[in-house]
Design goal:
Strand 2 and strand 3 form a beta hairpin. The protein has a 5-stranded mixed sheet with strand order 1-2-3-4-5. It is 24% helix and 35% strand. It has helices at 11-24, 75-83; strands at 5-7, 30-38, 41-50, 53-59, 68-72. It has 97 residues and is an alpha+beta fold. Keywords: Plasmid.
Length: 97
């Protein structure tokens, strides 16, 4: 993983910066991002090209028992997903004892 943690709101701009590399395939195997989705909650985003599609795996297993996997037909569709704020981070209810 990288040492740089980015905010959820900045994912689209990071993808746009890396767009030429993503489309040309020069960075694939995998693009890994550490994303702070909420204050203090960092999850791993793993982006991979599979055939002509792009797969986003969100590893938030500290919060949920499973990985979240989303498939996009283009990197532009993935950028749009983040620009529109469609990623909703896991919100845990507090438990009172």
């Amino acid at each position: 993983m990288h040492d740089t943690i980015i905010k959820l709101a900045d994912v689209a701009s990071v993808l746009k910066q890396r767009l030429p590399e993503l489309v040309s395939g020069t960075i694939f195997d995998v693009l890994e991002l550490e994303v702070e989705e909420r204050s203090g909650m960092v999850v791993d985003y793993i982006i991979n090209k599979v055939g002509t599609d792009y797969v986003l795996v969100i590893d938030d297993r500290d919060l949920t028992p499973e990985l979240t996997t989303l498939e996009f037909d283009s990197i532009e569709a993935m950028v749009t997903y983040f620009e529109r704020g469609e990623r909703k981070p896991m919100v845990l209810d507090s438990v009172e004892s």
